[in-house]
């Protein structure tokens, strides 16, 4: 007998890091390091329905270090909103950050623009309390 699964949380399809980074090159990052980085404002997490702290994968460079601009973005965003809204801000296209390689400039998500820190900071400064830009 097959059981039908109920609706899944929207974030189930996203890549998460839960408590540790298991897929980094030579050395996994410990829970203590993640917590330290979060306390220093270098990254953020969200509390999941499962009771665990989830660290969105997009915050990390290939070497396992958080992107430096994350700290500056969080300084702008965190005083105003909770981390779930910050997550939505990073994941949804933002009209302050445009992909101009398309035939028509197209908004892209901040999580796809870490190589454009000035635009990210401008987008965060213009944030109005909703992930819609």
Explain what this protein looks like in three dimensions.
It is a single chain. The chain is α+β, with helices and mostly antiparallel strands. The chain has one domain. It is built from four helices and five strands; from the N terminus they run E-H-E-E-H-H-E-E-H. The strands form two sheets. A three-stranded antiparallel sheet has the order 1-3-2. Strands 4-5 form a two-stranded antiparallel ribbon. Helix 2 packs parallel to helix 4 (117-125). The N and C termini lie far apart (46 Å). The model is unreliable at 1-13 (pLDDT under 50).
Helix/strand layout:
Layout: E1 16-18, H1 31-39, E2 46-47, E3 53-56, H2 68-77, H3 83-91, E4 94-99, E5 106-108, H4 117-125
Antiparallel strand pairs: 1-3, 2-3, 4-5
Helix pairs in contact: 2-4
How many domains make up the coordinates? 1
Mean pLDDT across residues: 80
Question: What does the main sheet amount to?
Answer: 3 strands, antiparallel
Low-confidence stretches: 1-13
The ordered string of helix (H) and strand (E) elements is EHEEHHEEH
> Treating each run of at least 4 consecutive H or I residues as one helix, how many helices?
4
**Structural class label:** alpha+beta
Tell me the span between the first and last alpha carbons: 46 Å
The Rg value, from CA coordinates, equals 16 Å
Number of strands: 5
Helix content percent band: 25-40%
Strand order of the largest sheet: 1-3-2
**Could you tell me the strand content as a percent range?**
5-15%
Shape: globular
Jot down its keywords.
disordered N terminus, alpha+beta, 28% helix, globular, 133 residues, two-stranded antiparallel ribbon, 5 strands
């Amino acid at each position: 007998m097959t059981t039908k699964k109920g609706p899944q949380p929207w974030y189930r399809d996203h890549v998460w890091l839960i408590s540790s980074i298991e897929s980094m090159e030579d050395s996994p990052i410990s829970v203590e390091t993640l917590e330290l980085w979060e306390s220093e404002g270098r990254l953020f997490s969200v509390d999941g329905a499962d009771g665990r702290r989830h660290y969105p994968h997009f915050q990390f460079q290939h070497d396992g270090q958080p992107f430096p601009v994350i700290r500056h973005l969080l300084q702008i965003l965190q005083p105003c909103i909770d981390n779930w809204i910050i997550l939505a801000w990073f994941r949804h296209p933002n009209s302050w950050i445009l992909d101009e390689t398309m035939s028509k400039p197209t908004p892209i998500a901040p999580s796809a623009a870490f190589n454009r820190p000035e635009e990210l900071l401008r987008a965060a400064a213009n944030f109005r309390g909703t992930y819609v830009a």
